[in-house]
Amino acid sequence: MKEKIIIGNWKMNKTNDEAIALIEEIKALEYDKKGIQAVVCPPLTSVFSVGESIKGTDIELGAQNLCFQDQGAFTGEVSSDMLKALGVKYVIVGHSERREYYRESDEIVSKKFHKALEEGLIPILCVGETLREREINEQKEKVEKQLSAVFELEIDKKSEFIIAYEPIWAIGTGRTASKEDAQSMCEFIRNKTLEILGEDISKNVKIIYGGSVKPSNVKELMECKNIEGALVGGASLNAKDFIALLNYKESL
Ligand code: PGA
Hints:
Blueprint: E1 4-9, H1 16-27, E2 36-41, H2 47-53, E3 60-63, H3 80-85, E4 90-93, H4 96-101, H5 106-118, E5 122-127, H6 131-135, H7 139-151, E6 161-165, H8 179-197, H9 199-202, E7 205-210, H10 218-222, E8 229-232, H11 239-246
Parallel strand pairs: 1-2, 1-8, 2-3, 3-4, 4-5, 5-6, 6-7, 7-8
Helix pairs in contact: 1-11, 5-7, 7-8
2-phosphoglycolic acid binds near residues 166 and 210.
């Protein structure tokens, strides 16, 4: 298993041509392939072409969403089979933007998470509190509630998944959680996962941080004991910045 995982979430950015140009630029740059797993999650319209472009490289493919149904009359949705057929390995579920703008409840997020696991995809489950919740010191209750909703259903012992702690107030705002706060919440998530799911499952879970991760702060975050990677939006849209994240060990 690689030391850290760094996942680029391109969100609703890049036309297909732009996505191809970005991945080609990333591929041309050097990074520590032994220690770091790089993953890109392009928009759906470019999952195929980016997937083709990274074949034979160390970069892996993720998607930003999936439907919890198998197939049928679900206009606008995408199934796990469709994603897997394109070589997708990871899928983001429960991103705060989907929870907030598309009303994805804890129940829907849980269905998506379990569907992904059932289908052999690695879900990247996002959890995190609002600014208001942090101000009144309810961040841990919020995250625990989000985790419990997903952990309520049985999880197979061989399952592999990722939990991304993403404080909502840090996403796309340029305001990053302090390394102490990020570390403390990731440790809390680790302990809860262990307590609820046990050692067998917990050892296959990676806990990562997301929210305004950039070349200037990535190193201090990645050096925290319980932070095993990053979920990155803005800085993953620029090849040099993304590569700087993958090469964080070299930064000052
Ligand atoms: P950001 O986004 O890096 O632009 O803050 C992170 C995310 O939404 O995963």
